[in-house]
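Self-study notes.
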Amino acid sequence: MSLYGHEDAWREWNAALAGPRMHHGWILAGARGLGKASFAMQAASELVAEPGIPQPPGSHPDILVLSHLPATKEDEKKRDEGKPFQLKRNIAVEQIRAVQQRLYTRPTLGSRRAIIIDPADDLEKGAANALLKSLEEPPQGTYFLLVAHRPGRLLPTIRSRCRILRFARLSDAQMDAALREQAPEASASARSAAIRASAGSPGAALEFLALDLAPVYELLDQIAQAGDPGFVLRGKLADAIGARPDRARQAAMLELARAITANRMRDTPVRAIPLLCDTNAELANLAAQFPVANFDPGLLVQETGGLLARLAATRDAAHG
């Protein structure tokens, strides 16, 4: 996928790469779905490449990527068979320590090695502390690229030892170009809905299309616009989500609810801002609990819809 909207990030990275002293730690910060992981892979490939040394066409021995592992042995088997599988919720300390063992040896092909952690804000506590030791005393020629959707969740000591490279959300025109390239089968109306719902994140927009979230988004928006005193819309929302939705679909619903709340901030009178902020904070708390909690899908729909229904009062305030 083309990396739309990353011109500033590339300029900053390339300037650092051409400088006399490349910083050893980088945080790639921005919303989920902006292409930070793809940027990290391309940037790491440039970092480890050296004149006169042939580079492998596929995976590179000097680019190490840490991410979520399969949740269970059965999920490992499903992965190996090319079937859908569940991931662990965090990146474990054992993964960091395994990489640190590699750092005692020299890079395989050249003089540089890149460590990509995606996403670094999902490091468990022990893993974050172990990573900090490597950031404090980085081996020569080793560089860390930490993909972070919520950099505030990283340890302050990790943030202080890294240079932050920020990724902005894309414009509607950039989003449309990305969707035309990656989802050419999507209709104009589907692209428009995906752009409205994804708040400048092409990854979120593609997930929106893949999961067929348009009906879910329209119902969430109706609840936020008109409320749901008779629970009719929440019943329709439960049907749209499905009786046994997977975690990806439930998580997407929460992200759509947060996007609706954020969009409402732009045209809401000042007196309604506190309610919007409270609603956004409660949705954020719900989204933060979701990866580690076992919510009943029906109750999650009711809770999410109930929070959005409060926003109807902000609409009344805007027109009252």
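Second protein, same conventions, sequence then structure:
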Amino acid sequence: MGKVVMYGSVSVDGFIADEIDQPGPLFDLLTSGDVPLDESGVLKVSQGSYDYTRAYWDQIGVSIVGRHVFDMTDGWDGIPPSGVEHVGVVTHRPQPAGWDPEAPFHFVDGIDAAVIMAQELAGERIVEVAAGEVGGQVLAAGLVDEVRMDVAPVVFGSGKRYFGLVHAQHLLEDPDVVIQGNRVLHLRYRVRR
């Protein structure tokens, strides 16, 4: 099975969005360079960010998100983001009325079931878990192998926490990747077992 990676952009003080779910300058890195990150040509990053991010995106088989993120993005109109093949949506509610049953989104009740489903679909590829409440729950359950953070040079002061409501200490190894890009510091930590 591929590894499970918790990932997200984060402020220096540990938030993935402000109090009203806006990421603000957390995504400035995506328009701060001159190297196209995808086919759209809209996302342009520094060469260092491109090398790190593109290689990572190309390894992701399945992303896991919570229902809140799914609803905020309108389910990406049924097309998984960043070229990901499948999205697992952790939810206690049914899929939206009129949702296309052919869209590669899987509505799963609970994080354990979501990770099992995602690993089966991903095979040897990475299972990415979005930072925030769902990511924090997956970390607390001991199912995360690696934590990746794109740290933006901004202090929010309050908002939605990167690790959600984690209430216990979780040790990470020393960072094995530290890459500076424009408006971002990319960090990668293995979870200590």
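Instructor comment on the second fold: The chain has one domain: 4-190.
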